[in-house]
Amino acid sequence: MALSPQKIIVEDRQVPLDATSDPPALFDGTTRLYMTYTCPFAQRVWITRNLKGLQEEIKLVPIDLFNRPAWYKEIVNPANKVPALEHDGKIIGESLDLIKYVDSNFNGPSLYPEDPAKREFGEDLLKYVDATFVKTVFGSFKGDPVKETASVFDHVENALKKFDDGPFFLGELSLVDIAYLPFIERFQVFLDEVFKYEIIIGRPNLATWIEKMNKMIAYTQTKTDSDYTVNYFKKFM
């Protein structure tokens, strides 16, 4: 299903809640996405929210993870992580589960195709993203990323060739693109800046995909400052 033209909603970034902040009125009927502006896992759900046009239905509640409020673990998410979604009297966590939940339980364009072949391939890619792709690239920071990440970036490049009805993983824009996007955004910046490794060289499908994604307002409003990404990722070297 093709997405309708995006409604442009400009949102100011709020000051994150920290250890001195009072909690919101939990379970008062407001749907809240507890998140951090710089977290790639939370960004997945943030993008999903925006693409479905749910800016007014799902309120962002940014949390300062470096000085997080005690009440967040006590009454919101015992795992003390973001993202977490407060909806319909319950709290739901884990980003890949959440993007599916938001897509299935809220209005807006569907972000997962009904075609069985696409859904099967999509599930394979969702299993691959954190367990293999993200893990491999992060692990390469202590070694030689050019050699150690070639197989996973080539896997992404080849996956983008699977369907010929569009430039996205499943041909049409889907939750799979959203799952990969926050990490490819950061890896591209960091690997180029620190290792002089440009991940799109020799990968035309990936280059086109990144170009397409960078034209989507629902995504560009969620991007993290490149300098922050570089400095933060250096901790994994």
From TrEMBL:
Occurrences of domain GST N-terminal (ranges): 29-110
PROSITE patterns registered for this protein in UniProt: GST_NTER
Top-level taxon of origin: Eukaryota
CDD domains: GST_C_Lambda
SUPFAM superfamilies, alphabetized: GST C-terminal domain-like, Thioredoxin-like
Official protein name in the record: Glutathione S-transferase L1
Organism name: Camelina sativa
